[in-house]
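Reviewers asked in the last cycle whether our approach scales beyond single polypeptides. To address this, we selected a multi-component target totalling 601 residues and predicted its structure end to end. The input consisted of the following lines:
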Amino acid sequence: MIAASEAKKPCPWPPVVREFVQTEQEHVYRLLGMQLGLGTDPAKTYAYLARRQTPPSHATSQWNSPLSPKSTLPEGLWDRDTEYFSLGTPTPYEDTDRYPVMSMIFDEMHEVFLSLSGATFPRCFLATLPTGDVNARTKVEPYTGSPVLFFERGLFQFIYDFAMLVGWAVPTISLSELRDDKTLRRLRLRGSYTIPQVASQHFVGSLYAYVVSGPPLAGESPVTPPAHNSFLHRVLVGEMTQFVMAHELAHVTLGHLEKSQQNATEQWKEEYEADLTGLLALCRLAQKTGRSIGAGFWASDLALTCFQFLDEAISIMAFGSNTSWKSKTHPDSFSRRVHLRDLIETAFKRRSILAPAFWAKWTFDDLVLHTEGLFERLFDRYHPELANPGNEIRSYTELSRQRSRRQKAKTLMPYVTSTNYAAIRKLWLMTDQILGRLRYFAFPLMTGLHYQRGSRPSPLWRKRIDRSFGPAQRSA
Amino acid sequence: MNNDHFNVEIGFEGEARDDVLSALRELGASDLIEVQQRGITGIDDVILAVVIGSALTSLLAKVLRLWKCGVIVDTRRTKVFIEKNCDLPRGSVLVIGLDGTVATLHEISNEQLEELVRSLTTDKS
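The resulting structure, written as structure tokens, was:
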């Protein structure tokens, strides 16, 4: 167990954990080497893949500094960087430049969790795997009980590429807008805004390449960087990566890894909980460092959106348009997005009911938003059948579910101010409009390619397909 | 009878967990651990156990019969990985030896399995 003050220090690995991780990495590199025709020597495969990796956009621990209002390095930070780099990597299968940076980001998030939970939990270790899957897994080392968070390199690559796609598709968002929720809330899509053609090309081309040729294991991105939105790209990569790390750490702090085999409903519930706790950690970090909370909300939404798009594209290529979600461990990413949005909205509505005592400090915009929230809440209460058509509150179970949703939303209330809420509403709207249009353009095209050209997903996605999708069941 | 002890890690995404667990119990496996995992988009089922050589032979025979795909046996470090692999046809086993040699065996007999496990013992020594 560790205390908060120790979380942000680099820590040497216990030999047993190092052995556990290296054994896992060698096994995976060996299998991959065989698939790539490189033989069974894991070191050789690692050396081959390490030649070209995800572009190192963040070569220092200040990778997320554009969001920070402080432009100078805090005192002692340079020493901390040096300390991390001097430790080297825990196994020979980690990149000497990238691993220390990842560890710094990870330890920062680790520290946030310790302050969130107010308790100690086992020190977690960070490792990478190269299978190409877009995933991250937390696995407990069985003899010491230490959780090891294995991040697939394919996950970082996909997040990196998806952030570039978003950068291409949306209008230029400046650094000053990204730093501050007050300016983000004023963000508007002009009526005449046209999605650049290059964005549509990249969207279809890269999704198709990912699904049919498999993830680019050697880091050859199918997308080119958007020069007009380089800050946005950089910020999104950082925030989306942190959301994934926070989700995994949430499983550890919430004690999910200590539970024995569970049914699908319980496992899905735990995933929703980990998403919410991950989001809370992002908010806390943003608050601590003076960054935009709205951008954190947006990045978590986009992280789940990118998984949703990838899964949709894979399922179309595997089964055509006739697919159903069958994972026993995870809800589909669209439901997870909706769930998080729902909690943020509920938190805002609750806050706007409780907040009038502070009205004197409000701006006119705050007042408008508060009034809107109040009316919306009253409307929901008296006309639930109209507010949520097809989703009426019918039974006690539904009522208790709603109640627990409200309780969960309460934890988000400190972060969902009217300014932050207005900012995230703008960003959600923009994402839904632009990515929605790209989606409706791309997926029918992919369905056509599946049926007419017989395009199929790469064998690298086989495990993902086996655990997540099946042909849709016909109703009687 | 082969009485050497092996640390095994069994990965069996999509197969019945109870079948694997009951097979291991029947074969007298010790230190049985269901590895607890969580992930961002999905996880595989993994069980750790310690088995003696003769039990490892029976375990391999059983999973080759039960699982819908082939099996990879990777023996290069301190653990023996037994992993379902759907690139291999059902009943096939791909063995990666300590020296990195790869052999694929189809419709493997009990004698061949015994020989295979014996070779792991030789490698260990």
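Chain A touches chain B at residues 19, 22-23, 26-27, 30-31, 34, 39-41, 134-140, 142, 155, 244, 247-248, 251, 256-261, 270, 274, 307, 311, 327, 329-330, 333, 459, 462-464, 466-468 (CB under 8 Å). We regard this as preliminary and will revisit it once experimental data from Aim 1 are available.
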